[in-house]
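Take a protein:
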Amino acid sequence: MQQKINVTEFVLLGLTQDPLRQKMVFLIFLIFYMGTVVGNMLIIVTIKCSRTLGSPMYFFLFYLSFADSCFSTSTAPRLIVDALSAKKVISYNECMTQVFALHLFGCMEIFVLILMAADRYVAICKPLHYPRIMRRQVCHILIVLAWIGSFIHSIAQIILALRLPFCGPNLIDHYCCDLQPLLKLACMDTYMINLLLVTNSGAICSSSFVILMISYVVILHSLRNHSAEGRKKALSTCTSHIIVVVLFFGPCIFIYTRPPTTFPMDKMVAVFYTIGTPFLNPLIYTLRNAEVKNAMRKLWHVKTASENKA
């Protein structure tokens, strides 16, 4: 029998209660969020408009940038607004929606990173079969499967969240709604739900990280048979991917693969993978990728030339 939910809204305590620090939080994360959206949208537009970035690697990068933008949007705007709000209230329905969005786009980012690693593995280890294996139709099917998998994961998370009865208090010691802080407020024994959470989110993070690391070890090992120029180009691409993987999965594994205990650094760790990593990804992929930078320059020159003619 489903228990009645007495709590209809929650209060997010945010990152700090100090007024001066709240203003600093507002300014810093406003800059981070604007940088995230602008950077990822720039990559999306460049890949969409450029004829030279039509390979599967950039097809997957397009969806990684989209997932990054949505993932950051699921948490950053509320953190920014709440930094200047006297009462940081979020309704029960808004809280559940945030849990769903956070896990949908976070899981999508994980699956896209795996697809990007698979693409690099085929390109480097099976170059003769690459055009046949990574056809555009196959890439579309893989992305659809990634969306379906992310949706299933998010549905599982929201089902766990909806089963939690809340009868007070309603203070969430976090800047967003997620299952870990909500478990602390539930009026029930949450051991089994936390076990399911670790089995679900924790297993996805840990197994995906292991798969990605193994794939890149295999890729890097196979590079010994390539030419010096080929090794340099492949190493540049793989290094970017490895940096993104470590930055994203390190905090995720720390948060989702442990018993129901909280640490003072939990909120800052969560900030790093929900806001920090989406901000860094465009910088990593543009600063270390000559093809993306060249495509951006060409599009800029075309736009400037068309404006001058007008």
Summary: The longest strand covers residues 9-12. The beta strands are 9-12, 89-91, 171-172.
